[in-house]
Amino acid sequence: MAKEMHEFQAETKQLLDLMVNSIYTNKEIFLRELISNASDAIDKVHFESLTNRELLEGDEDYEIYLVPDKDSHTLTISDNGIGMTKDEVIENIGTIAKSGTKAFLEKMKEAKEGGEVTDKDMIGQFGVGFYSAFMVAEKVTITTRKAGTKDAVRWESDGSGTFSIEPCEKEKRGTTITLDLKKEFYGDEAEEDFTETYRIERLVKKYSDYVRYPIKMDFVTEEKPKDKDGKVIEDAKPEKKVEVRTLNSMQPLWTKNKSDIKKEEYNEFYKNQFHEWEDPMEVFHTKAEGTVEYTALMYIPSKAPFNLYHTDFEPGMQLYSRHVFIMEKCKDLLPDYLRFIKGLVDSPDLSLNISRELLQQSRELKVIGKNLEKTVLKALEKMLDKDREKYEKFWAEFGKSLKIGIYNTIYMAGDAKEKLKDLVLFPSSKEEKLVTLKEYKERMPLSQKKIYYATGKDKTIIEALPQMELLREKGLEVLFCTDPVDEFAIEALHDYDGKEFQSIARGDLDLGDAESETAKKETEDIAKKNDDLIKDIKETLGDKVADVKVSQRLKTSAVCLVADEMGPSLSMEQTFADMDNPLFKAKRILELNPHHDLFGRLQKLHEAGKDSQDFKDYCDLLYTQALLIEGILPENPVDFANKVAKLMAK
Ligand code: ADP
């Protein structure tokens, strides 16, 4: 195999560009990123060696080795981990595998141009470990040999868009990364000198102290030799002495006493262990002794990862048994609605020697999972109660997870909705800030029987809905569902403490008061009198609508479209359609305001003849208007425009 040149994937190029020109000030963290990659690689080889000892080739002393070199202005990081094959190097280092990356990058770029986010935010949501090397290096060389194979490869790039790859020799398994440092980062004049052993030692202590494999470095000292009696020979030439030192303590943070751990330590550990760039929002450190003994360290990140709801997002906590790492992502520990939690569990009661599948289902793990779920939920309740501002920040990032959790109770056994119902927040017609269901219920007047909600893209759009008119007039509070998942969650909840939810755009809007009773009778009378008209409008619209009704909910608007009480709502239909699932159709009911001038006009046109073109056009226009109000485009916009034009010209 000769030397080959490759182009980075477009998205990778964009990220590299971001790194090379990064305004991210904390450039030193590149070392933490490369060390944690090395540590992961050792985890992997260790894990595989449990079933295939030969992989280790007799080299069982795991280590990460750092070599700062003042002469060549390089810093080298080596590990005897799993290493990579040529294909893996191309795949892992040249491309970003996460789906949705492109769309995300574009969105971020727009936000950046609008001044809403910085490079730091972008990097933060991504966690682009390896590429951070390009913040400090003008060239990066990787030599790597996969454990159990013979062919090593050398990868080289200056981060500008291409990389080369060629075969090479490598005696030890694993990966060696050499950074040719940019001139700001070596020598006495440098901003920061990463060829200085003491500087590297400090960085390792600061960022990587808990890495569970030794991080070693040579310390070179010059000493004059001693004679047989141990006395220094004064006129002899100094001799170089090389001493290998392990820089990190390797004591797992979670084994220390809570009171001895500083916040910064928790934060550094988090960033190191979980490849995060920003401090977490919340830390939970719990120990339990009882039927099952364990220590857990859990974090709520400060930002939701961009792919939290993509299928490629892998939730799960790390598992340890007596401080020995056993599994990277244990999925069944926490319920899916806590998928955003990062953390680890260390328990002597977990067995090292059973398969992953059996382990995930073990009784001990179930007990631990239940307890941890409780810990997190309790902490969230407390946060909501004591620090609303913080909770709202949490909600903005992860609220969707909890709502999906409630919705999923429809499919899955469990009582998630009971646990989560007091943690959900909604925008409301009564308050600027978000409200809880409890707050809503406490404010309900005695006569109000149901909790009202409305769906739409945002607050302004919902407030303008014709269906809001009556409720506003009566001063009734309406919860706003602005996220497609909101309505699904409400459906799943069914009621809150005995008060059922009622969409203002579905079924009959029964407000339950005396006034409404009178209005209801009045509407029924009008409907009876206009029986033929209603029937003929329905006939004209054909299968576009399931029904046409005289409306009780409209005050100033002429029409609105509502969905049947049963079955999906109009916005649910849209959501299903967006997910390429057009089978779920809402039963559309066109409601007409009998007090609007247009109703009189319809009556007149109808009297003139139900088969007249004008009557048919009016019916069609009314229906399309109602669609537009719901944010649904007409099937035939040209036809709609022509009909409006015809009418305007009259
Ligand atoms: P992340 O570590 O978040 O996956 P990186 O960009 O840091 O992202 O690394 C990309 C991938 O490259 C890793 O997932 C891993 O498969 C591979 N990799 C990086 N460094 C090493 C290493 N020292 N040894 C083996 N594989 C590595």
**Strand sequence of the main sheet, in spatial order?**
1-6-5-4-7-3-2-8-9
Structural class: alpha+beta
Tell me the span between the first and last alpha carbons.
Answer: 79 Å
Strand content: 15-25%
Kindly state the mean pLDDT as a whole number?
Answer: 87
- Please give the CATH architecture of the largest domain: 2-Layer Sandwich
Low-confidence stretches: none
Descriptive account of the structure:
By secondary structure, the chain is an alpha+beta fold. Helix content is 38%, strand content 20%. The chain has four domains: 4-246, Histidine kinase-like ATPase, C-terminal domain (Heat Shock Protein 90); 263-386, Ribosomal Protein S5, domain 2 (2-Layer Sandwich), CATH 3.30.230.80; 389-503, Rossmann fold (3-Layer(aba) Sandwich), CATH 3.40.50.11260; 514-649, Four Helix Bundle (Hemerythrin (Met), subunit A) (Up-down Bundle). A nine-stranded mixed β-sheet has the order 1-6-5-4-7-3-2-8-9, with helices on one face. A hairpin with a 4-residue loop joins strand 2 and strand 3 (74-79). Helix 2 (30-49) crosses helix 6. It is elongated, with a radius of gyration of 33 Å. 36% of the residues are buried. It binds adenosine-5'-diphosphate.
